[in-house]
Write a structure and sequence with these properties.
Alpha-Beta Plaits, 33% helix, 4-stranded antiparallel beta sheet, alpha+beta
Length: 93
Amino acid sequence: MIKHIVMWTLQDKNDAPMVKKTLEDLKGKVPSIIDIEVGIDFSATDASADVVLYSTFENRDDLNAYVAHPDHQAVIPMMQRVTTSRKVVDYEI
């Protein structure tokens, strides 16, 4: 099982609900996603990111299929426009 976690800082925190919906909609479009959860931060500390994506995949090949999937690729330009930073952690359990 692969866990894929991504955290973003947004240029405008008001974009968080739109980002959340856009990312959650990938679940019905990308077959290799087992589960996906998107959260919006409420703590607003200096150490906080604004949005987090937590998703699971069966294996590394399925994660790579997600990354390459056209529906995922279509989201990337929008995410690049609305974010100022991105951090990623992928790990196997």
